[in-house]
Amino acid sequence: MSLVLGIETSCDETAAAVVDDRRAILADVVRDQLDAHRDYGGVVPEIAARAHLEVVDRAVAQAMDDAGIGFDALDGVAATGGPGLIGGVIVGVMTGKAIAAAHDLPFFAVNHLEAHVLTPRLTDEVAFPYLALLVSGGHCQFVAVEGVGRHRLLGTTADDAAGEAFDKVGKMLGLGYPGGPAVEHAAKGGDAERFTLPRPLRGREGCDFSFSGLKTAVRHAVERLPPGPLAAKDVADLCAAFQEAVADVMADRTANAIALFRAGCPDGETLVAAGGVAANEALRGRVETVAADRGLSFVAPPPRLCTDNAAMVAWTGVERLALGLSDGLDFAPRPRWPLEDLAAR
Ligand code: KG4
Ligand code: ZN
């Protein structure tokens, strides 16, 4: 059996986890920094880096404690090497390298996007190749996942990522940061028909996204309301209309993405959703229906493993350990690191 420690510090969660090659998560520690960033309405990179530095050692110690093992029991150490906020990535990579060097273990510099798209193999044993809808705060892509380190980008966003749009709409409506969960919650009591919002790129060829026009339309709808604080009903109706528009676009784009995926991978059988926005029940439901109509099974990790965590980083380490794909201790953290670049290393 092999055991890998994973460390995630690329955004505003400091996380450490221990996962084995039988898909058991022995420890899964996530410390968010929401309190540190709340006053700013978003993640402040400098504050994030300092916060990671303050708690990363304790997060790792806690994970080792929860797993009930010492460092000598590990077979490898994985840390997110990018893409992400560079100060935080440096903290995680340095920590991972130090543990690997001190205990003579292989080190894995994990691509954060790959960690998200490989998570359904940890939770559900999904076989390659599969189609992944990766929707998070920083990314919004369809990826043909053909193997570890083998990803083909089928579509991406021209402007905002889906999670970014949720966060901006949440901020506009006074729902605080992060907006995604709050918008989903508020939308539950809302009337999606009261406000008419656009469906950017619906009906167009390909499977790209664009969310900035939708976000602007929400702003205009807010501006047309009577001045003064928004009523709870206005907020709920706007959230419902926005979420419905995102769901409509996602369903349309998913149908095209499945056709593109099938052209390149005729034996693929699964659509997976990953990344923080995949925690959204309404969106999951819509995308699942599109997949089912086209004969694909649908897998999305439990919400806790959709948002940033270190179990997905440790799991990517497990996958790479099995293939003998470790990294040197000279690995340089990468603020930008597109998935397609992984094949080159
Ligand atoms: O994957 P993640 O934790 O971090 C990135 O890699 O970006 O994703 C965070 C994003 C945020 O934009 C957050 O608002 C969004 O995922 N999110 C949601 C939900 N939960 C988190 N968006 C919509 N509905 C949700 N329930
Ligand atoms: Zn993420």
Report strand %: 15-25%
Number of helices: 11
The radius of gyration computed from the alpha-carbon positions, rounded to a whole number of angstroms, is: 20 Å
Biggest sheet record: 5 strands, mixed
End-to-end gap: 27 Å
Could you tell me the mean pLDDT? 96
* Distinct bound molecules: 5'-O-[(R)-(carboxyoxy)(hydroxy)phosphoryl]adenosine, zinc ion
CATH H-level name of the largest domain... which superfamily? ATPase, nucleotide binding domain
CATH architecture of the largest domain: 2-Layer Sandwich
- The CATH topology annotation of the largest domain reads as Nucleotidyltransferase, domain 5
Determine the structural class based on helices, strands and strand pairing: alpha/beta
**N-to-C series of helices and strands:** EEEHHEHEHEEEHHHHEHEHH
> Which CATH first-tier class of the largest domain would you pick?
Alpha Beta
Tell how many strands the DSSP assignment holds.
10
Strands across the major sheet, in which order? 3-2-1-4-5
- How many independent structural domains? 2
Low-confidence stretches: none
Please identify the oligomeric state: single chain
- Share of helical residues: 40-55%
Name the overall outline. Answer: globular
